[in-house]
Q: What sequence folds into this?
């Protein structure tokens, strides 16, 4: 019997005009999006490799340790998933003078948009009259006059309806994958396919939950015209309102200090105040060394110094100690100031993280947010990847720190008078930053809460629909 | 005609649809006003902390009170731009730490109108003709001496009034609430802008109402009409404006922000390194400023081309015209942001000799405060808003005329 209901439901939907419209709309939008996004991805790749070349050119001519940090700052290469999911676009970053405000005005459209907004709306459009429509037509009591339980009818309707929705979605997604894979510049790894499979599974849950919601609403109404109103009302709240409101609400409860003020304070601590402290410490240490070597004159020109070092072993020793003392003074100043900065930064990070956590939890009231986080995190285009990238970034700087220390020591050995920070160096042996995706298993573990939320919504709406339906007056 | 309009209002008032719609509008507008108001207050408090002193060469713009209604790019415009010898250092405000903000659109008045009110207006229009036909009252109505044009106009006016009057009341109440705070002042000019925004909003609502009626006259059944309308709505509100942006990017090559900041870094570190060798600091500093200026100019030119193109593609959907008109009127649009950037650059160039001299001789200087004047209304109008308003009116007329044409040929039986 269940099979019969499912079949009836599928056939009924497939031959309706809304199915045709849905099919066409989905195919056109998904295809257009994937063609455009794939082109965009290829352009991003070109641009990225051009940037790498420019950086190498720079490093060949002007590399020096003092200011190299900003130049070799690790950059995120374009991700394979960009041709489907844009995620948190790093372009929106507004801490640069030349920002790109267009995505702020009109958020970009991608697979997440298609699932969260289009598919949820379509699911409701297919299900808002699942019960009350049949009641109005009089077929509901006919169906129930057979030897079939209401639970089976409900289950059959849900399965049949969801399957019909997944047909056009799967078809259009398949088409877009063909477009993507036909492009010779794009190669997907096994983990990318795994992530896509999981995202597809979550999309199926997402569609089912909206279908159940539609049935729930439908079994609370006598007529289709009032059922569609309620459906749209709830859709607007879930999809358009709650996700937008929650970060603001969270920011009222978990406040973060003014970022501009903190950044200014930090730059004062590491610049003006550090220089003052460093100069003070350096003078103190220099005095100590001069006490030991009263004959040492530090105000000599570089050539004179080099000559003295070569000829006078006593001077050489003094010079070495002086350099050491000066370096120690500056290291000490850097250490003290960096410790102050760390206190401020840690406090800021803690507060921001608290606010973010609260925003995420609050926004999970809406299935849209859960799916959005899930899809972006699995495809490595979301918040999780920003953290992952930060970890890689930290690791790179550690590696670079080791390299810089060794290199500077070897430079110093070659010429003890050299200013190791401000002299051009050959950095062809410097480690380069390599981006690698987070392991799929870790990503999957990270998105488990969101997946669970989607499943809970499913159970909740289905059981609510069941309880409404068993009490439904079918006449 | 007035009888028909009155009948429409009366039947609307009693319907479930009207109840749902009004509840939705009231809740949304009030929450939006409240949230944006709190957000604005916080940004205002932030601004008080970061306001530059005369020894700091920093340009910061106070938050714009109209951003409560249309936030647009106000967050980007309220950043602090610090002029230094190695370029303009930009620091972003509050929202930049919490990445959840960048996932979802801002729930301001503009967004509520753009997305929700348009849907609501469609829902008012979707069953106007076909439902009366289904019920059989359409034939009755036309058996009177009323012409079809009168019936259509009467329906339009009745529905428009029953939608816009509660809406305006709610907005005015919300506005009164915002005005209770003494820290927030609206100048006469801003009030005029606000009135114009409301005016554009009414055009926008009217347009979707007409569209709803048009589809209703083209379909036989209300159920079919609502499906068709929702798809058109999704296309107009979400798909076209967003795809337009992406499409324009395919046609205009704009360097990426990350790439630009890398270039800027390379320029200043190079010049500082060269400066350490020849000690000719003033020259190197001005070279940094000059090259950064060139980069910025190149980017601006390309970006402006992109904006122009994407604007024109996006205008296929009147929703984009609405967004452009409202953000430009509120002074939070793309044009205003560009203007602000220009002002920041010319401020930077005017004080640059002082800044580099201050670094060379290590003496703090006094800098003139950064002044910014929002673009005049006349300029805003000339730069596209007038066109956008006309475009909205054009769509209004188009949809209404089409629905008239469809209605005179409609089989009322």
A:
């Amino acid at each position: 019997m269940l099979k019969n209901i499912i079949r009836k439901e599928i056939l009924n939907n497939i031959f309706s005009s809304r199915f045709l419209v849905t099919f066409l709309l989905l195919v056109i939008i998904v295809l257009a999006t994937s063609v455009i996004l794939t082109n965009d991805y290829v352009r991003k790749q070109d641009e990225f490799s051009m940037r790498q070349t420019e950086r190498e050119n720079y490093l060949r001519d002007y590399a020096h340790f003092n200011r190299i940090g900003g130049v070799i700052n690790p950059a995120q290469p374009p991700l394979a998933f960009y041709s489907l999911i844009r995620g948190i676009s790093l372009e929106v970053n507004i801490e640069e003078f030349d920002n790109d405000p267009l995505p702020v005005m009109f958020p970009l459209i991608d697979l997440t948009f298609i699932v969260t907004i289009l598919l949820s709306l379509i699911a409701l459009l297919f299900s808002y009259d699942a019960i009350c429509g049949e009641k109005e037509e009089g077929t509901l009591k006919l169906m129930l006059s057979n030897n079939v339980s209401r639970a089976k009818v409900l289950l059959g309707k849900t399965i049949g309806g969801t399957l019909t929705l997944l047909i056009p979605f799967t078809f259009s997604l398949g088409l877009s994958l063909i477009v993507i894979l036909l492009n010779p510049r794009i190669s997907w790894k096994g983990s990318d396919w795994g992530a896509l499979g999981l995202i597809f599974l979550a999309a199926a849950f997402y569609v089912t939950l909206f279908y159940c919601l539609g049935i729930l609403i439908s079994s609370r109404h006598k007529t289709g015209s009032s059922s569609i109103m309620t459906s749209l009302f709830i859709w607007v709240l879930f999809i358009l309102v709650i996700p937008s409101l929650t970060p603001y609400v969270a920011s009222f409860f978990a406040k973060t200090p003014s970022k501009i003020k903190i950044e200014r304070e930090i730059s004062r601590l590491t610049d003006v105040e550090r220089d003052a402290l460093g100069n003070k410490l350096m003078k103190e240490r220099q005095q100590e060394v001069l006490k030991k070597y009263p004959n040492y004159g530090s105000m000599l020109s570089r050539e004179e110094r080099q000559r003295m070092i070569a000829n006078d072993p006593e001077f050489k020793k003094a010079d070495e100690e002086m350099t050491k003392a000066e370096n120690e003074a500056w290291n000490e100043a850097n250490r003290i100031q960096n410790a102050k900065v760390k206190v401020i930064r840690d406090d800021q990070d803690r507060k921001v993280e608290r606010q973010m956590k609260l925003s995420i939890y609050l926004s999970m009231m809406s299935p849209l947010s859960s799916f959005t986080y899930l899809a972006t995190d699995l495809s490595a285009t979301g918040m999780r990847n920003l953290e992952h990238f930060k970890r890689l970034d930290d690791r790179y700087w550690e590696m670079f720190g080791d390299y810089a220390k060794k290199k500077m020591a070897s430079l110093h050995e070659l010429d003890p008078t050299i200013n190791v920070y401000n002299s051009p160096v050959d950095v062809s042996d410097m480690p380069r930053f390599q981006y690698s995706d987070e392991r799929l298993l870790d990503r999957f573990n990270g998105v488990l809460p969101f997946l669970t939320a989607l499943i809970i919504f499913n159970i909740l709406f289905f059981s609510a629909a069941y309880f409404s339906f068993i009490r439904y007056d079918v006449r | 005609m007035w009888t028909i309009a009155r009948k429409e209002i009366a039947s609307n008032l009693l319907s479930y649809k009207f109840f749902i719609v009004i509840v939705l509008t009231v809740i949304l507008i009030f929450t939006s006003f409240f949230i944006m108001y709190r957000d604005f207050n916080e940004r205002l408090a932030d601004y008080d902390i970061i306001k530059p002193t005369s020894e700091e060469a920093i340009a910061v713009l106070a938050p714009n009170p109209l951003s409560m209604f249309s936030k647009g790019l106000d967050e980007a415009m309220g950043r602090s731009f610090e002029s230094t010898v190695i370029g303009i250092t930009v620091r972003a405000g509050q929202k930049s730490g919490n990445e959840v903000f960048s996932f979802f659109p801002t729930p301001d008045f503009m967004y509520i109108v753009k997305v929700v009110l348009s849907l609501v207006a469609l829902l008012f229009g979707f069953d106007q003709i076909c439902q009366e036909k289904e019920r059989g009252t359409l034939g009755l109505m036309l058996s009177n001496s009323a012409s079809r044009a009168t019936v259509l106009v009467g329906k339009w006016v009745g529905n428009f009034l029953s939608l816009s009057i509660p809406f305006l009341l709610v907005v005015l109440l919300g506005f009164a609430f915002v005005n209770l705070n003494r820290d927030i002042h609206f100048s006469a000019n801003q009030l005029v802008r606000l009135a114009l925004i409301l005016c554009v909003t009414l055009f926008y609502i009217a347009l979707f109402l007409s569209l709803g009626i048009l589809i209703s006259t083209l379909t036989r059944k209300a159920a079919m009409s609502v499906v068709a309308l929702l798809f058109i709505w999704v296309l107009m509100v979400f798909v076209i404006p967003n795809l337009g942006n992406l499409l324009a990017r395919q046609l205009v090559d704009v360097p990426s922000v990350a790439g630009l900041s890398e270039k800027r870094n390379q320029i200043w570190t190079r010049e500082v390194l060269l400066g350490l060798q020849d000690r000719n600091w003033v020259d190197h500093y001005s070279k940094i400023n000059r090259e950064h200026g060139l980069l910025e100019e190149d980017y601006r030119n390309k970006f402006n081309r992109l904006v122009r193109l994407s604007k024109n593609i996006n205008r296929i959907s009147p929703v984009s015209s609405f967004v452009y008109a409202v953000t430009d009127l509120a002074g939070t649009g793309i044009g205003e942001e560009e203007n602000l950037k220009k002002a920041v650059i010319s401020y930077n160039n005017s004080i640059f000799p002082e800044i580099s001299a201050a670094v060379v001789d290590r003496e703090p200087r006094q800098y003139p405060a950064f002044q910014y004047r929002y673009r005049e209304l006349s300029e805003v109008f000339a730069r596209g808003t007038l066109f956008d308003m006309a475009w909205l009116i054009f769509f209004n007329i188009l949809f209404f005329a089409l629905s008239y044409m469809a209605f005179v040929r409609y089989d009322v039986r």
